[in-house]
Amino acid sequence: MVDFTVAIPTYNGESRLPQVLERLRKQDNAQHVSWDVLVVDNNSQDNTAQVVREYQANWPEAYPLRYCFEPEQGLAFARQRAVEEAQGTLIGFLDDDVLPASDWVAVAYSFGVNHPKAGAYGGQIHGDFEVNPPENFERINTFLAIRERGPKPHLYDPPNLSLPPGAAMVIRKQAWCETVPSRLALIGRVNGSTLAGEDFESLLYMHRAGWEIWYNPDMHTYHKIPRRRLEKDYLIPLIRGCGLCICQLRLINTETWQKPIVITKIMLGNLRRLTLHLIKHRGRVKTDLIAACELEFFLSSFVSPFYWLKKSLQAKLLA
């Protein structure tokens, strides 16, 4: 019986995986935990499989390193495959560019044991920047999965889309299997799409079923952020994808009669935020990267009901 599975979804991760695997090979205080590592290769076109095989040849038997291949492109499919293949009752997801602290496995497992109603929980994700981020970057750092919410554990607020990112998140396999559909509506950034929200979608299903979503400050990870992810050409499409999924996410736990109310609140709330933002920043949006990113999020959130309606109509026509 395995207590804890570390699942690493990866796409073309041959250059990134070694750092994650080295951190996992050197975990402290995990000898009392029965755990393993599962690499989910999401249709990689590089030497990811070979990298895993080379590590398997010299990997400690105490916590086996396993590999599986998921041909359907998309992070949602990779995570679903990880849940199906995982042997642990708790599954700790790590993106292939997120490095765990030396006690991450032990601390993550302990929290799950002590919080049996937790369907999912995330910890502190710190930015490990290749270059210094721009001034005031903390205003938008959550879009790069950075979470630093203080030293005290607390419940997240799912109705307001306050949730841990999937980049470094632990889920209880029972909670996922009982509540999350095998195919999510949001599948991740794939085939040129920047639409996000697949991790939040799964957590909202758990919350609807009564599972708790927690923040555990003792779990530390470090998100490797290269220079290009701090540039406008990367950030604007990323943030647009986060905004366009807002309506779809908010409607997951909404009764049919409530949907017009929720949609109206989304549009009016973001119209107000857009107006205030433009008044405050005026012409600086063209020269201030952070202000431009905030404007993009408010605008894409405002139009998210139209985007959701378009996608719904397309789905009905294809059905």
Low-pLDDT runs: none
What is the CATH C-level name of the largest domain?
A: Alpha Beta
Question: What's the overall geometry?
Answer: globular
Tell me the CATH topology of the largest domain: Spore Coat Polysaccharide Biosynthesis Protein SpsA, Chain A
How would you characterize the largest beta sheet?
9 strands, mixed
Beta-strand fraction estimate: 15-25%
Q: Distance between the terminal alpha carbons, to the nearest Å?
A: 42 Å
Average residue-wise pLDDT: 95
**What is the name of the CATH superfamily of the largest domain?**
Spore Coat Polysaccharide Biosynthesis Protein SpsA, Chain A
Q: Helix and strand succession?
A: EHEHEHEEHEEEHHEHHHH
Number of domains: 2
Structural class: alpha/beta
Share in helix: 40-55%
List the total number of helices: 10
Give Rg in angstroms: 20 Å
- The assigned CATH architecture of the largest domain is Alpha-Beta Complex
Number of strands: 9
In short:
The protein has 319 residues and is an alpha/beta fold. It is 40% helix and 20% strand.
Descriptive terms for the model:
319 residues, alpha/beta, Spore Coat Polysaccharide Biosynthesis Protein SpsA, Chain A, 2 domains, nine-stranded mixed sheet, 10 helices, 9 strands, 40% helix
